[in-house]
Amino acid sequence: MQIENILNHLRDRTPALMGHKYFKRSSVLIPLVELNGETHILFEVRSKNLRSQPGDVCFPGGRADQDDKHPSHTAIRETTEELGISEQDISDPIPLDYVVNDLGRIIYPFIGRLKSIENIQPSPDEVDHIFTVPLSFFLENEPKKYKVHLEIKPEDNFPYHLIVGGEDYEWHIRTMEELFYQYDDNTIWGLTAKVLNHFISLIDTKKDR
């Protein structure tokens, strides 16, 4: 193939995330609701019967379906299914920064307004119970931060003979930061805490001074 043909083939291409076609896509919604004149954030506690992260605190959300036209449709659909409400009970979905992780997932977070919590009937298959936290709590309290060191362990048949250094190759040990919020008896951590902290950073006007 000639260089000119290669350049012409790629000239008008729009760059994207490498391998994005193979990533699993999910969306979550940070539900905002007004209670007694104060803004609250609604959380779910995952059913104890779920295989993945039973009993963890999370936002409504889940895996995208082929019929979802946009990540916001995924967030709204999953929220209606998990909370037992209608699409009309959710308004103003606004996207936040999306998350890409090494497990081959892209997570699209949104905020949205719930009309009320009176009509909520959580799906028992997915949700143990719900609770709300005043937004002011997160504006006034920073999360606690802890380091997690990730171990690199190549598989037994890893071709050490093909790399400089062989079995003595110096792998760079990665460290990730986990955030924890504690409210009453509820622990909010993991991806939920990271998305929440990102949202708070966007609206916390004190940090702009």
UniProtKB/TrEMBL annotation:
This is NUDIX hydrolase. The keyword Nucleotidyltransferase does not apply. GO terms for molecular function: 8-oxo-7,8-dihydrodeoxyguanosine triphosphate pyrophosphatase activity. Residues 23-156 form the Nudix hydrolase domain. The keyword Manganese applies. Signal peptide: none annotated. Coiled coil: none annotated. Keywords: Hydrolase, Magnesium, Manganese, Metal-binding. CDD domains: NUDIX_CoAse_Nudt7. It comes from Oceanobacillus aidingensis. It is an enzyme of class 3 (hydrolase). Its EC number is 3.6.1.55. Its cofactor is Mn(2+); Mg(2+). InterPro entries: CoAse, NUDIX_hydrolase-like_dom_sf, NUDIX_hydrolase_dom.
